[in-house]
């Protein structure tokens, strides 16, 4: 499933092409994706101007001149393709190593903009979804009401982690994966950030705070590790895992920089470390780490 860098890369690819554009026509080619599409979906979009394309956690938020927001989640295989007309070649913002099939039969929603740009949502497995809601409802909607801070924001700091981790009985991996703590982080980048910070995924989250609730050295190391991993992933265009692809069709290349993710039994890349990358599985989810340098 696309994580924050992949979703943000898609947003950045689409933003200059669609912001300020009026939606002339919407082709709704099926009644549902993961969930039923909103009632009167096409009619509520047609004639509206796209004022902003934002991102919150792993969700895209297309804000409209009507006062409504189209919330979109890519699921496992969702991607957008862009062309100037239906007859021109399509490009994509986002990347995937294992393609799920981009056949036109998986083109489920097509947005025709006044500029002539055609934006097509393709989703082979249909795990993605689209919802329409009032902009006033965004912060209180169940999807967003309990989300944690954004990892690029100023609120994400060692003091914040210490406050949220104090007394927690979960391990660091589960703690960082909790969207109520940090919004947008997923398995790939949590594994990479913990390795960069030299922290074991199995270490208790409460170790980020001392007995007085102040941030420990571990918390101080973890914050820049998360931010640097995400920054580098964004610069590389994300990771071409599973079915993620950019809006412009180019591949993301951060997977070539992975230190631990997917590198089971390979040497640790940390200078001076002689450890071997290990893989453990919990709840059907793989964790990659080096037991030699991650403590």
List the helices and strands and how they pair.
Blueprint: H1 4-18, E1 23-28, H2 41-45, E2 50-56, E3 59-64, E4 68-73, E5 78-83, E6 93-94, E7 107-113, E8 118-123, E9 129-134, H3 158-165, H4 172-177, H5 187-197, H6 217-235, E10 246-247, E11 277-282, E12 285-290
Antiparallel strand pairs: 1-7, 2-3, 3-4, 4-9, 5-8, 6-10, 7-8, 11-12
Strand tally = 12
Which percent bin holds the helix content? Answer: 10-25%
Total helices: the number is 6
Provide the succession of SSEs: HEHEEEEEEEEHHHHEEE
Percent in strands: 15-25%
Q: Any low-confidence stretches, pLDDT <50, length ≥5?
A: 95-101, 240-246, 250-254
CATH homologous superfamily annotation of the domain at 4-140: MutM-like, N-terminal
**Alpha-carbon distance between the two ends:** 28 Å
Summarize it.
The protein is α+β, with helices and mostly antiparallel strands and 295 residues long.
